[in-house]
Amino acid sequence: xxxxxxxxxxxxxxxxxxxxxxxxxxxxxxxxxxxxxxxxxxxxxxxxxxxxxxxxxxxxxxxxxxxxxxxxxxxxxxxxxxxxxxxxxxxxxxxxxxxxxxxxxxxxxxxxxxxxxxxxxxxxxxxxxxxxxxxxxxxxxxxxxxxxxxxxxxxxxxxxxxxxxxxxxxxxxxxxxxxxxxxxxxxxxxxxxxxxxxxxxxxxxxxxxxxxxxxxxxxxxxxxxxxxxxxxxxxxxxxxxxxxxxxxxxxxxxxxxxxxxxxxxxxxxxxx
Length: 272
Prior knowledge:
This protein is α+β, with helices and mostly antiparallel strands. The chain has helices at 9-27, 103-109, 114-131, 136-141, 143-159, 177-230, 234-244, and strands at residues 29-32, 36-42, 45-50, 53-56, 62-68, 72-81, 87-98, 163-170, 174-175. It has 3 domains: 25-68, no CATH class; 72-175, Band 7 domain (Tetrahydropterin Synthase, Chain A); 177-243. The chain is 49% helix and 22% strand. Strands 6, 7, 8 and 9 form a 4-stranded antiparallel β-sheet that branches. A 3-stranded antiparallel β-sheet has the order 3-2-5, with helices on one face. A two-stranded antiparallel sheet has the order 1-4.
C-alpha cells in the first residue's frame, strides 16, 4: 500500500502566510455610510477625515473611528434668576449636528463627548444670561423673544466648537408657588376690574337709552299737543273720535254717551 506524499513544510508555511495576508488586506478595507464620517488615525494621530464610500487603510499602521454627523438631541435642565430676582426653572432641548468638515479639529480639541464637555455648560451659561435680562412676567408674555435670544446665543457659542445648532425647544417656565399665586391674584383682579368697567359701560348705555326714549316721548307729546291746539282744541279731539266711531251705541254706559251732549238744547220745537 502506497503512502501519500507528505506536504512540504515550506508549502504549509506559505499557505498560512497567504491566508494571513488575505485576512489583513480584507480588514484593511472599510465602508463609510451616508451621514457618517471616518477619522483615520496613524499611530494614534489624526491623519484625515473620510466621507461616505469604500476606503482603504494601511494595515497594522492606521486605525479608523466612525462618527455619526446626523442630527442629535441634547437635554439640559436650567435654574436661573430673572431681572426681578424671581427663581425660574426650565429645560432646554437642543437639536444639533457635528460639522463633518471640521471633525478632525473637533476631535483634537475636545474629543467626541461634546454634550458633557461643551453643550450642557453652554446651555447653562446662555440661558442664565438671557433670562437675567427679562422680568418673570416678561418670560411668560415674550416667550418667543426669549427663545430667539437663547437660540442665537447658543449658535454663536457652539459654532466655535464646530457644532451646528439646528433648533431649540424650551419647556414651560416654572416659578415658585408664591409667584404663581401672585400672578393668579393679579389676573383675577384684572378680570374683576374689566367686568366692573363693562358693567359700568352697560349701565351708562342703558341710562342713555332711557333718556333718549323719554326725550322722544316728550317730544311726541309736545308735537301732538301743538297739533291739537292748532286744529281747535277739544272740538278737534271730538271730531277725530267721531271719525273713528263705528256708529253703534254702547248697551250699557256708566256715563255720558260719547259724542252726544244731552245738555245741548234741542233746536227742534216740541209740538203741543
